[in-house]
DNA sequence: TTCGTAACGGTTGAA
DNA sequence: TTTTCAACCGTTACG
């Protein structure tokens, strides 16, 4: 957390280690690729490492989304209350049942599917820690307080993970089929682009600029230090963890170093079609005033909207299912053989640089 | 020179 | 409240 101000990469670009690039940059990468600009050139222009360009383009090709994945958090819990109840039922019905038998029954009864069924060890732990304690004293069960076949929570085939809100689980690393949940939103900001619309990606900066937060007042309006950012925490937006993940990259991109001001020179506001500039790049002076830090983007300008074309399509999935995997999963990210799959409406004139 | 990707050090957030 | 762990990130370096 000491890299509040970011670091400078070999290309002179500024980045915050561990944090996603601002969505504006991510979008720009995709846009430039759409224009036929080679990734290596994009890398140089935006001063983003070519590895990152490659990864973002590969992800886009794979998912149709420019957004980063949901950062942080733990694996979705599989031992939901419903599952625990069923396990309890099974144990009550057959005190001698083995954990692996419970597991099989969870599958057979449709309580879980193969993607979210607890492991045998998890079941054992549940039996030991939860059900076992509940069953004490006086025998393995709690005196039959639970009916043998209590309705419990009706099994919802759509239920998979106890994520709050409309979000889908970050199942990016799951296999092709994450389960009963249609993968259309898997791993992406679920409410995108509604709750945190394109404006949050592209518009806020300009909104900030327009509202004067930039140009001398950013210090007060937008504290440069990450930890000074109010309201940007994991509880502020309870319904959108991934949204946060998607926007925090901008929210928390303080990056005052001048390196990324190059983005402004390479990517002037006029590079965007009028539709996209509406409410986004209203400041005619440019995208980022030279010498200014990247302004964090976030929920500071909820009124800003973008009417431009299919910009949102870049934020949405091109295809259901998100199988973008990181290196840890074997990195079967799609080859960038077709980096120019169209983003209709994103006809952006080549940079005037 | 270009591109894909493993390794690395970092951040984040749920448990 | 703190710690742990497993997600994710972008950069770097290598092939």
Poorly predicted regions are 134-252, 254-312, 314-353
**What is the string of SSEs from the N terminus onward?**
EEHHHHHHHHHHHH
CATH architecture of the domain at 7-63, please? Orthogonal Bundle
Strand content: under 5%
Largest sheet: 2 strands, antiparallel
* The top level CATH class name of the domain at 7-63: Mainly Alpha
Assigned CATH superfamily of the domain at 7-63: Winged helix-like DNA-binding domain superfamily/Winged helix DNA-binding domain
- Cross-sheet strand order for the largest sheet: 1-2
- Distance N to C terminus: 35 Å
Kindly state the mean pLDDT as a whole number?
54
Number of strands: 2
The name of the CATH topology of the domain at 7-63 is Arc Repressor Mutant, subunit A
Domain Paired: 4-130
GO cellular component, one term: nucleus
Region (Disordered): 134-153, 317-353
Biased composition (Basic and acidic residues): 320-329
Summarize the structure.
This protein is mainly α and about 350 residues long. About 35% of the residues lie in helices and about 0% in strands. It binds a DNA duplex (15 and 15 nucleotides) through helix 3 and helix 9.
Entry keywords:
DNA-binding; PAIRED_DNA-bd_dom; Arc Repressor Mutant, subunit A; two-stranded antiparallel sheet; single chain; disordered C terminus; mainly alpha; 353 residues
Write up this protein.
The chain has 353 residues and is mainly alpha-helical. Among the domains are: 7-63, Winged helix-like DNA-binding domain superfamily/Winged helix DNA-binding domain (Arc Repressor Mutant, subunit A, Orthogonal Bundle); 81-131, Orthogonal Bundle (Arc Repressor Mutant, subunit A), CATH 1.10.10.10. The protein has 12 helices and 2 strands, in the order E-E-H-H-H-H-H-H-H-H-H-H-H-H. The protein has helices at residues 23-34, 39-46, 50-63, 81-93, 99-108, 120-135, 198-210, 218-221, 241-251, 261-266, 274-277, 311-315; strands spanning 7-8, 14-15. It has a two-stranded antiparallel ribbon. Helix 2 packs across helix 3 and helix 4 (81-93) packs across helix 5 (99-108). The protein is elongated. The protein starts with 6 loop residues before the first strand and ends in a 38-residue tail after the last helix. Residues 134-252, 254-312 and 314-353 have low confidence and may be disordered. The protein binds a DNA duplex (15 and 15 nucleotides) through residues 1, 3, 7, 9-10, 15-21, 38-40, 48-55, 58, 68-77, 170, 172-173, 226, 234, 241, 244-245, 248-249, 252, 326-328, 331, 333, 335-336. Residues 134-153, 317-353 are annotated as: Disordered. Residues 320-329 have a biased composition (Basic and acidic residues). It is found in: Nucleus.
């Amino acid at each position: 957390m000491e890299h509040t101000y970011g670091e400078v990469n070999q290309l002179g670009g500024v980045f915050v280690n561990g944090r996603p690039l601002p969505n504006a940059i991510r979008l720009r990468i995709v846009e430039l690729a759409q224009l036929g600009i080679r990734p290596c050139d994009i890398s140089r222009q935006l001063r983003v490492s070519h590895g990152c360009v490659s990864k973002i383009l590969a992800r886009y090709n794979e998912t149709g989304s420019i957004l980063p994945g949901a950062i942080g958090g733990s694996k979705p819990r599989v031992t939901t209350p419903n599952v625990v109840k069923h396990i309890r039922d099974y144990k009550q019905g057959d005190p001698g049942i083995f954990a692996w038998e419970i597991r099989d029954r969870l599958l057979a009864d449709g309580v879980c599917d193969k993607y979210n069924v607890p492991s045998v060890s998890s079941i054992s732990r549940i039996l030991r820690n939860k059900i076992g304690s509940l069953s004490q004293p006086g025998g393995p069960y709690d005196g039959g307080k639970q009916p043998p076949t209590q309705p419990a929570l009706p099994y919802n085939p759509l239920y998979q993970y106890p994520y709050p809100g409309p979000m889908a689980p970050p199942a990016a690393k799951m296999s092709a089929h994450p389960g009963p949940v249609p993968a259309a939103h898997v791993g992406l900001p679920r409410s995108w682009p509604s709750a945190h619309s394109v404006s949050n990606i592209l518009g806020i900066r300009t909104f900030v600029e327009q509202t004067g937060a930039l140009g001398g007042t950013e210090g007060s309006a937008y504290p440069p230090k990450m930890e000074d950012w109010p309201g940007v925490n994991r509880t502020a937006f309870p319904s959108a963890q991934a949204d946060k993940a998607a926007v925090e990259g901008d929210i928390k991109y303080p990056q005052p170093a001048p390196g990324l001001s190059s983005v402004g020179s390479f990517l002037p506001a006029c590079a965007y079609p009028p539709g996209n500039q509406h409410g986004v790049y209203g400041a005619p002076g440019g995208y980022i005033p030279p010498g200014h830090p990247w302004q964090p983007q976030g929920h500071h300008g909820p009124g800003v909207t973008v009417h431009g074309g299919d910009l949102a399509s870049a934020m949405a999935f091109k295809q259901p299912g998100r199988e973008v995997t990181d290196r840890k999963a074997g990195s079967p990210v799609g080859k960038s053989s077709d980096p120019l799959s169209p983003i209709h409406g994103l006809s952006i004139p080549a940079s005037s640089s």
